[in-house]
């Protein structure tokens, strides 16, 4: 992979981010908040020929349902993850998560792009106004190859002011260093 003008750089694949984020969410939300965290949530849609199209959301967070609650008391959250994606792949995932969210009645929809390419943070591909108004949100998590510096920036629709909101780039210095 080409990363910051260097060729044949080894980067972390999507499944690693998926596994680690799922582990963190399960330990935090399932154990502490009693929310259900599901990886690779299966969705199917009937096709005109009688067969089914099968898709899988990367991570779904569902509220617990008790006798006094309905599934609408707390929103279902969908995370679609990418690792060092092209703009074309990002656009495909923007479309995909909106379809998933419609099928799951998700209250929150996030595309999370993990990358080692600094350009994704300095010159990001943001959502269209229509995608924003449909509730899609995006976060870009950039890290250096040693995972000693992390930058995060996010974008969503601000319903109160009826405009796109983009956070400033936040920088973090993780204590634990992950080696590839």
- What is the CATH-assigned architecture? 3-Layer(aba) Sandwich
Number of DSSP strands?
A: 8
The first-level CATH class is given as Alpha Beta
Average pLDDT metric: 85
Q: List the total number of helices.
A: 4
Distance between the termini: 14 Å
The helix/strand series, from N terminus to C terminus, equals HEEEHEHHEEEE
Domain module tally: 1
> Gyration radius, to the nearest Å?
17 Å
What kind of oligomer do you see?
A: single chain
The CATH topology corresponds to Trna Endonuclease, Chain: A, domain 1
Summarize this, please?
With 180 residues, the protein is an alpha+beta fold. It is built from four helices and eight strands. Strands 1, 2, 3, 4, 5, 6, 7 and 8 form an eight-stranded mixed β-sheet that branches.
Strand and helix layout:
Elements: H1 14-33, E1 36-46, E2 52-62, E3 77-83, H2 87-104, E4 108-115, H3 119-122, H4 129-133, E5 136-143, E6 150-158, E7 163-166, E8 170-172
Parallel strand pairs: 3-4, 4-5
Antiparallel strand pairs: 1-2, 2-3, 5-6, 6-7, 6-8
Keywords: Hydrolase
GO molecular function, one term: hydrolase activity
Protein name: P-loop containing nucleoside triphosphate hydrolase protein
């Amino acid at each position: 992979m080409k990363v910051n003008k260097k060729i044949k750089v080894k980067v972390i694949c999507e499944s690693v981010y998926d596994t680690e984020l799922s582990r963190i969410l399960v330990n935090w939300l399932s154990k502490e908040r009693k929310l259900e965290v599901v990886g690779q949530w299966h969705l199917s849609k009937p096709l005109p020929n009688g067969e089914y199209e099968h898709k899988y959301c990367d991570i779904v967070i569902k509220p617990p349902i008790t006798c006094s609650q309905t599934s609408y008391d707390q929103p279902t959250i969908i995370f679609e993850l990418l690792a060092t994606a092209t703009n074309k792949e990002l656009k495909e995932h923007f479309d995909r998560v909106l379809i998933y969210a419609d099928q799951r009645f998700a209250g929150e929809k996030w595309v999370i792009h993990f990358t080692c390419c600094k350009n994704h943070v300095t010159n990001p591909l943001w959502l269209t106004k229509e995608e924003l108004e449909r509730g899609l949100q995006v976060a870009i998590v950039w890290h250096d190859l040693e995972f000693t510096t992390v930058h995060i920036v996010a974008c969503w629709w601000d319903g109160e002011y009826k405009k796109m909101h983009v956070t400033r780039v936040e920088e973090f210095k993780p204590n634990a260093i992950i080696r590839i």
